[in-house]
Amino acid sequence: MASAPAQQPSLTVEQARVVLSEVIQAFSVPENAARMEEARESACNDMGKMLQLVLPVATQIQQEVIKAYGFNNEGEGVLKFARLVKMYETQDPEIAAMSLKLKSLLLPPLSTPPIGSGIPTS
Question: What pTM did the predictor assign?
């Protein structure tokens, strides 16, 4: 028999702010910042490599924080936390701003093509 699914943690808006703040701070810890930088350098701004190299490191860093709040210590916990944050983004401007900051830590800056290299204009 399969075991019953684990109870999904629920956080209030205030708790979500605290956890999100702790997650963002975790990326500033020198050891974690070095891990992320090494993964980014190895990925060479290639989106496929970013998914293979940077995302797992970022997931581990988030897991270390959110497990203390009842989220499981697997990728599923990070996904559940992300869904919870997404839900609160529309209700709370502070969470929306922190979520944007977290995304900027995870995703590479988008580079724009040089002027003149796009579709020719007539």
Answer: 0.79
Q: What letter represents residue 1's amino acid?
A: M
Instruction: Tell me the pLDDT of the chain (122 aa) as tens digits.
Output: 444 344 567 899 999 999 999 999 999 999 999 999 999 999 887 888 888 999 999 999 999 999 999 998 877 899 999 999 999 999 999 999 999 999 988 876 655 555 555 555 55
Tokens of 52: 């293979």
Distance CA 69, CA 40 (A): 28
Segments in the chain forming alpha helices (H): 13-26, 30-43, 47-49, 55-66, 75-89, 93-106
Which tokens in the block code for residue 43? Answer: 């990925």
Query: Do residues 99 and 20 touch, judged by C-beta distance below 8 A?
Result: yes
Q: Are 57 and 35 in contact (CB under 8 A)?
A: yes
